[in-house]
Design goal:
Order of helices and strands: HEHEHEEHEHH
Radius of gyration: 15 Å
Largest sheet: 5 strands, parallel
Strand order of the largest sheet: 1-5-4-2-3
Shape: globular
Helix content: 25-40%
Length: 147
């Protein structure tokens, strides 16, 4: 099972890179290091649904509004967007790039990888919404919400 998940993750990340070659990415470890520094903190944007966000999200993250114009962020702000695995957030990053945002990144592996690495969520011990049964396969059983 471990090798199946590893192969699926490699495939997903490869396909997202191929589909979105101009979308800058940031690894979970690089984001964690950035957040630990405490200076020039990025804006964290969650590209998932309200239901997914309500189960858990990265600390300090804001849910992306339906209308991107409502973001009202400085175009030069550092922004990291995430979703479950990185596809929906890559779509959002591409759209925000088209709106003129410059320092914007897609969190590679997104919240699933973040949680699987036992990185902090909005509350300690929170679990992650599995999106659906198929994609939930990629969550470590200790990270998966039963909701």
């Amino acid at each position: 099972m471990f090798f199946q998940k590893k192969l699926v993750w490699i495939t997903i990340k490869f396909l997202i890179r191929v589909r979105f070659p101009n979308v800058p990415k940031i690894s979970t470890s690089d984001l964690a290091a950035w957040l630990e520094k405490g200076v020039d903190q990025p804006v964290l944007l969650d590209a998932r649904t309200q239901q997914e966000y309500a189960v858990s999200h990265l600390r300090g993250a804001k849910l992306i509004p339906a209308n991107f114009e409502d973001l009202k962020l400085d175009l030069s702000a550092s922004i990291v967007v995430y979703c479950s695995i990185g596809y929906r957030s890559a779509v959002v990053v591409k759209q925000l790039q088209a709106m003129g945002y410059k320092k914007i990144f897609n969190l590679e592996g997104s919240i699933f990888q973040w949680a699987n690495e036992f990185r902090p969520l909005n509350r300690e011990g929170d679990r992650v919404h599995p999106y659906n049964q198929f994609w939930g396969f990629l969550l470590d059983s200790r990270s998966k919400s039963l909701d």
